[in-house]
Specification:
By secondary structure, the chain is an alpha+beta fold. The chain folds into 2 domains: 164 residues, GAF domain (Beta-Lactamase, 2-Layer Sandwich); 105 residues, PAS domain (Beta-Lactamase). It is built from 8 helices and 12 strands. The strands form 2 sheets. A 6-stranded antiparallel sheet has the order 3-2-1-6-5-4, covered by helices on one side. A hairpin with a 7-residue loop joins strand 2 and strand 3. Helix 1 runs antiparallel to helix 2, helix 1 runs parallel beside helix 5 and helix 2 runs antiparallel to helix 5. The longest helix is centred in the middle third of the chain and has 40 residues. It is elongated and about 85 Å long.
Length: 281
């Protein structure tokens, strides 16, 4: 195995470990820095096409290149001329009027790697101040890295997208005037909004173990003056074919007596099987 094959495998191994052990938000920056070090480049950066009029430098090493903005149209034409394949420039100065002059003017050799991802396309640009010879083994190494980088970009964008959705829905559920409790049947996952955390006297909203939620709900039920009615209704609930109930009254006593109208609904999907509890005053 030659040194370029070793570098490609090194890149795959290190990015795989990072994918499992580190936070996704820093995944891409780490990967680009790793490419730079493995290939002994003097610069490495991501050029992202943000819209029709803007292409911006991100995750650059050295950092002072970050946030440079260039016109994307000439770069797109360059990519079209090369059929969106990796471009190898052994002598940057010998290429007249290339659209990446602002980024590469102090370099002798460069590699431009298109990485097509949604919603925005990106390029990885590597540059060297000394002239390079891009032999076949080197190009094979670049192609392996390109495929892995495409996976990283796609994975990063998907993770950030779903994280954004989760944050939005959590914010909405925390603002509801009703207490919302979800207990999964897997025995490991549960969730409460802020109102439910207050009612169940938990340390805070968010993820909670089902055992903790079940114990807190038992304590809440034990404060009720109609405990027998709640117990008998619970037996009917779990025996019913619908496996659901609404307008179930829990009448609490104590220093702050309240009556809650309780609903319990089954939640079933391909990956989720549990119960949603809703407490309305």
């Amino acid at each position: 195995m030659n040194s370029w094959e070793n570098k490609a495998l090194n890149f795959i191994n290190q990015t795989s470990r990072w994918d499992k052990e580190k936070h996704i938000s820093s995944f891409l920056a780490f990967s680009i820095s790793l490419v730079k070090n493995l290939l002994e480049a003097d610069i490495a950066l991501q050029l992202e096409f943000e819209d029709e009029n803007t292409a911006k430098v991100k995750n650059a090493s050295p950092h002072f290149l970050n946030e440079i903005v260039i016109s994307p149209d000439p770069v797109r034409k360059l990519l079209h001329r090369h059929a969106f394949k990796t471009i190898y420039w052994t002598e940057v100065a010998a290429i007249p009027d290339h659209p990446l002059h602002e980024l590469l003017r102090d370099l002798s050799s460069a590699v431009i790697i298109p990485i097509n991802t949604e919603p925005h396309n990106s390029l990885l640009i590597l540059g060297w101040t000394t002239q390079q010879v891009f032999e076949t083994a080197f190009q094979d190494c670049i192609e392996t890295i390109r495929l892995r980088l495409k996976e990283i970009l796609t994975h990063t964008q998907q993770q950030l997208y779903f994280q954004g959705i989760a944050m939005r829905f959590a914010a909405i559920l925390h603002c509801l005037p009703h207490a919302v409790i979800f207990i999964n049947n897997d025995g490991f996952s549960g969730w409460v909004n802020q109102k439910a955390a207050d009612i169940l006297e938990l340390s805070g909203p968010g993820e909670q173990l089902p055992a903790i939620l079940s114990d807190a709900m038992t304590q809440l039920r034990n404060r009720a003056v109609n405990t027998d009615d709640i117990y008998n209704t619970a037996i009917e609930l779990f025996a019913s074919p619908e496996n659901a109930i609404s307008n179930w009254e829990w009448k609490l006593e104590g220093a702050d007596p309240r009556t809650y109208r309780v609903s319990c609904l089954p939640v079933t999907s391909q990956r989720i099987n549990g119960r949603l509890w809703i407490f309305e005053e």
